[in-house]
């Protein structure tokens, strides 16, 4: 496939949970029918289905995933999800700053143990008892040890990697943005940091990440800002400045454009334990965004 014929996919920003080296969340097709369009990200993902059935695509290969099974997605591996009935899954995303190793999702005798560790992590996340972060990390490193010892693809099979040189360069740049998201980072500054001209870097984001540079940076900032709204009593202005937005007015305007709701309203709903209602708003907003990409 020539460079002109190469398919491009949306690059998704993944921000770990606060104080933890991973991101863990529940995936649910709320109305029974949901499509997560093809995308990629620089992390290893384990998608474990608790209920229902989904069609999971790795590249062009389709896997029918039943309840009680999981699939492993490697860094920068293109994947998508199609659901047609009620389903619920646990998703664990492990950021990978460097391509050190890759993993196979082929059936193994350790599958039951890995699924059980994911369930255990999920239960602890829901309870959030005092010191739960320590327990979560303890379970996570058990899971990571199992992943490395039982599912790692040997070095001699490195040709398995489906990425490309441009994806590798973009991964280094997005890693930098995830680390410095709260700073004032212009396209020109970022380009100079990595030795590119701004025009070429902007084109790289659009062509190989299928996302605008500003939109990618904002998606990281929004991930952190949402967490501040949920977990702290900081003012909207403080949250805006802490997460790289110029002021509260700009933050509120961009927040409403993305989620269809003001951050003050979201903060109020969180206090009223109305997060489920907002989840639907977020899914609809993301679906709308995907339709424009």
Automatic annotation (TrEMBL):
InterPro entries associated with the record: AraC-bd (IPR003313), Homeodomain-like_sf (IPR009057), HTH_AraC (IPR018060), RmlC-like_jellyroll (IPR014710), RmlC_Cupin_sf (IPR011051), Tscrpt_reg_AraC-type_HTH (IPR020449)
Keywords noted in UniProt: DNA-binding, Transcription, Transcription regulation
Annotated Gene3D superfamilies: Homeodomain-like, Jelly Rolls
One MF term in the entry's GO annotations: sequence-specific DNA binding
Domain HTH araC/xylS-type, residue spans: 171-269
Stored Pfam families: AraC_binding, HTH_18
PANTHER family reported in the protein's UniProt record: ARAC-FAMILY TRANSCRIPTIONAL REGULATOR, HTH-TYPE TRANSCRIPTIONAL REGULATOR EXSA
Protein name: AraC family transcriptional regulator
Biological source species: Waltera acetigignens
């Amino acid at each position: 496939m020539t460079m002109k014929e190469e398919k491009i996919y949306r690059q998704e920003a993944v921000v770990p949970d606060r104080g933890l080296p991973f991101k863990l969340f529940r995936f649910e097709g709320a109305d029974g029918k949901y499509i997560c369009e093809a995308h990629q990200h620089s992390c290893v993902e384990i998608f474990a289905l608790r209920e229902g059935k989904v069609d999971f695509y790795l590249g062009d290969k389709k896997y029918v995933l039943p309840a009680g099974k999981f699939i492993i997605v490697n860094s920068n591996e293109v994947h998508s999800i199609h659901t047609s009935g009620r389903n619920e899954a646990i998703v664990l995303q492990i950021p990978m700053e460097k391509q050190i190793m890759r993993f196979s999702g082929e059936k193994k005798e350790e599958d039951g143990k890995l699924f059980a560790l994911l369930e255990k992590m999920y239960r602890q996340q829901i309870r959030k008892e005092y010191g739960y972060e320590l327990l979560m990390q303890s379970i996570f490193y058990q899971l990571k040890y199992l992943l490395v010892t039982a599912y790692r693809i040997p070095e001699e099979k490195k040709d398995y990697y489906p990425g490309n040189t441009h994806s590798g360069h973009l991964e280094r740049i997005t890693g930098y943005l995830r680390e410095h998201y709260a700073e004032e980072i212009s396209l020109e500054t970022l380009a100079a940091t990595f030795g590119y001209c701004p025009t070429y870097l902007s084109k790289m984001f659009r062509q190989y990440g299928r996302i605008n540079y500003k939109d990618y940076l904002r998606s990281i900032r929004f991930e952190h800002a949402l967490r501040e709204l949920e977990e702290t009593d900081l003012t909207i202005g403080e949250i805006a400045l802490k997460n790289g937005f110029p002021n509260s007015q700009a933050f509120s305007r961009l927040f409403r454009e993305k989620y269809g709701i003001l951050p003050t309203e979201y903060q109020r709903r969180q206090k009223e334990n109305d997060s489920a209602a907002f989840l639907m708003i977020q899914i609809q907003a993301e679906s709308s965004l995907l339709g424009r990409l």
